Amino acid sequence: MSAQLTLAVSEDYPRLAPLMEALDIEIGVAHDAVAREAAIMPLLEGSPLGAVYIIGPTRAPIGFLVMTLTWSLDYGGIMASVREIYVRPGVRGRGIAPEALTALVAPLRAGGVRALGIEIDPSNSTGQSVYARALFQPRPSVSMMVRKL
């Protein structure tokens, strides 16, 4: 199984939508189809604030990855954040997620990105193990707080 990454475009949405819905169901997030499409379409249409990648074959994706960009004073420049990563349950446990995250590093580095982050629930030991395999390290002194606008 390959964690090949392909930059997704708007024409890929019909193949991504079922995967996005499956992730929402799995993590218990209530997005309807219209809200889900509205949230992802700017990235699929080329927004400079992030990108969506198909994991695996583009005709039959095994997952997807959503990455956004911000500026970080701590890291001295552009920081990318993995906002979502999903691999179909039937192919999990084969190293696909860590491989996909690792494959993302070279193009980000070439684009001047200084760091790559990912948010994770502290109780998610499986996710922590997956991300550690892709060389992510915890930042114990940092906790994110959010104000919805």
TrEMBL record:
SUPFAM superfamilies referenced in this protein's UniProt entry, alphabetically: Acyl-CoA N-acyltransferases (Nat) (SSF55729)
UniProt superkingdom: Bacteria
MF terms in GO: acyltransferase activity, transferring groups other than amino-acyl groups
Transit peptide found in the keyword field: no
Keywords: Transferase
Boundaries of every N-acetyltransferase domain copy: 3-149
Pfam families in the record: Acetyltransf_1
Protein name according to UniProt: Putative acetyltransferase
Biological source species: Donghicola eburneus
